[in-house]
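Dear support,

I submitted the protein below through the web form. The confirmation email said the job was done, but the results page showed an empty box. After a refresh the structure appeared. I'm attaching both so you can tell me whether what I see now is the final result or a partial one.
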Amino acid sequence: MNTPPPPGSLHPVVILGGGPAGSTAAALLAREGVDVVLLEREKFPRYHIGESLLASCPPVLELSGVLPKVDAAGFVDKRGGLFRWGPEGDWVINWQEIYGENRRSWLVDRSEFDKILLDHARDQGARVVEEATVQDVEFEDGRPVAVRWKGPDGQQPERLACSWVIDASGRAGVLSQQTFRNREHHKVFQNVAVWGYWKGGKTLPATPPGGLNSISAPNGWYWLIPLADGRLSAGFVTHRDVFRERRAEFSSLDDMVKALMAESDDIRPLIEGCEFIGHARAEQDYSYAASRFCDPGYMLAGDAACFLDPLLSTGVHLALYSATVAAAGVLAMRDGTATEQEALDFYEYCYRRSYARLLTLVSGMYEQYGGRQSYFWSAHQLSHQVPTLDRQTVTNRDFADISAGLTDLAEAGDIASEGRRIATEDLLHDAHQAQQRAIRLGTSRSASPLDFAPAHWEPVNGHETGAGLKLITSPRLGLARISPPQHATPDEAGTDPTEPHTPSDLPTP
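What the results page shows now:
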């Protein structure tokens, strides 16, 4: 049972959802000759929040071939950000100073950005169907064998046989939310984000070029994101109980958002005299994770698997990262370089480890009063098996690496290196401890702590997942085996744990 189809008998890989995760996976697979069908519920362009992209994104988009198209769109070049967080005042993450002139990303209009990626997947040979509503995913012997869907004209659902499903259906969660119902919402991060746009406006002094601002407040935090057309995206994130209390004070969400901005001594001078461009929007209860990210015949990518929090702008990073690892796994299975179980193990390990690490960092920052050195120290511990003994000497480099998504890209190519490995269980323990601290400090109104990662997740087959494999991008995307000596020292395994972790682009052999 659960036997994957033999090479040469593959039906299409069906991708559910055409956002950044789905379109990137489709482009990567189609470029390698895989028969891909992508089913997208909406007609692009469509509005979406999540305008700040991490430095990890350009290398992935270069790999998929879409980078020149994104560059040509005229988005704001992002070079880092400024935090006004807790009692310490401003601290800056300037990518140019840390990494050099070439490290950058963008602040984007997601409706345009997402359409570029979806159109590119079509250009690479994927069969893209918009306004396609998935009705059901058929399973036999525990694995998906077909997808039933219908178009906008309401005709009878069509049945599309498949060998693999990549569920990139976002918050809708065709598999995790609608089929398996195994999505667990985090009881600590029960937050609501509200936001709107202003014509004009500016960011705080000392903000890096094209940088965004994250500004803490007694009951939450604000963001400021400058966009290419002169608009400023401004939002506020708070616990849902606080949101409900404040929402009752206003006749409309527009009035609420404008009042929240005017209440902040930090925000008000930056948008004073600027035109509010309605209408305001809100998102709530968006922090969750599925108990499993993959099983025979399918993988959950992007928001379909998990979503963290907007604090470090990780949404598109996790989408592109998971799409890359998922596509590499499918190609490795096709090419015979990894078994299905090995590819699944690698995917679950990489994606859940990335999620747990970011969650640990964000949960600590929600305390707000730990101080930036404590955030740098947390990031350092999450990046190194053998950390520095003196936490006061730790710089912002590891924080920058993790918050820019670069640690994930580098580590996926180094997953079997004993010098860099930190057990996923340790990361989940760190996340749990951070939540307990947040609850004690009153950041959350939750009555009891809950592990951010689902409590039911366990390493596949009882062993540490991902061992013996790494992600490669040259000469082609896929997975490669690593066979270091069984009891290798860090140097023999090719890694020195005492050296700084300095990822640059996607790993190569």
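Response: this is the final, complete result; the empty box was a page-load delay. The longest strand covers residues 275-284.
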